[in-house]
């Protein structure tokens, strides 16, 4: 299968991207049973809200996410499986729409409404360097009711071998409603919530936010002393003519309790939506175990140490 087939139902490219996404989901729910079932299941998921200091985390019991939560992303496992973001390996019913050199695809195992996977047309590694401007243009095209998302290759991407973004309903992403008041012009600030430490960049000028994100990636790379992409997750929301980016620096992919056995195990694999306040579990027992203290400990373990984050924030803000 080639991209031409995946894109065969793409409506007029002159229409706004947000409207084309709505039409795509309607068409795919009518013709692709996996998406129809995933969309229906999303409306009936068990959830609970954890509150601390006036901020909230939503814990979700979503068994359909088991494959992503338990995805093996080591080099050997990736090398021995077919890339599910290349068109020749997609289900025959799957269709998408074009945005520049990207293809927007409905996610049949959604975490939030209108959950999309947005794949590059070329099979290339998951790395944001050189493509921050593309992610910002995507955020502007889908905003304000959708937000653009990025999983780092070592902290949440189940396809680290194929560049992709995601998008989902902005209203369902808790952190976007809980940020501190931001200056109307260009602003850079550090924010802490539920054990998470994050950097927030905002400006009506895309170039300002692009520069902030690129400087952060370069600084993290230097602090990690690595030539690879450093570990981070990123949310970008465009609303009322203004870009807001929330960047979560990371130090590990999964918390230690992910690898525990028996009653201590918590199979929570934090990616960008988890860091943004939607903790996904796939097992009822694990769902029951998570309280506010547990959520805080998960976030504290996968994020930067306080000392390292303060060093990063001092350089950037």
Features:
317 residues, alpha+beta, nine-stranded antiparallel sheet, three-stranded mixed sheet, 11 helices, 32% helix
Could you describe the 3D structure shown?
Helix 2 crosses helix 3 and helix 6 packs across helix 7 (206-224). The termini are far apart. With 317 residues, this protein is an alpha+beta fold. The strands form 2 sheets. The chain has a 9-stranded antiparallel sheet with strand order 3-4-5-7-6-10-11-9-8. It is built from 11 helices and 12 strands. It is 32% helix and 23% strand. The protein has helices spanning 3-6, 17-31, 33-42, 66-69, 75-79, 132-142, 206-224, 272-275, 284-289, 292-302, 306-316, and strands spanning 46-52, 55-61, 97-99, 102-106, 116-120, 146-151, 164-169, 187-193, 196-203, 232-239, 242-249, 278-281.
Helix amount: 25-40%
Please tally the helical runs, counting DSSP H or I stretches of 4 or more residues: 11
Shape: globular
Described by strand count, sense and barrel closure, the largest sheet is:
9 strands, antiparallel
Q: Please state the oligomeric state of the protein chains shown.
A: single chain
Q: Calculate the terminal CA-CA distance, rounded to whole Å.
A: 47 Å
Return Rg in Å.
19 Å
Query: Approximately how much beta-strand content do the residues carry?
Result: 15-25%
Quick check: average pLDDT? 93
Structure class? alpha+beta
How do the SSEs run, as a string of H and E?
HHHEEHHEEEHEEEEHEEHEHHH
Are there runs of 5+ residues with pLDDT below 50, and where?
A: none
Q: Give the spatial strand order of the biggest sheet.
A: 3-4-5-7-6-10-11-9-8
How many beta-strand segments? 12
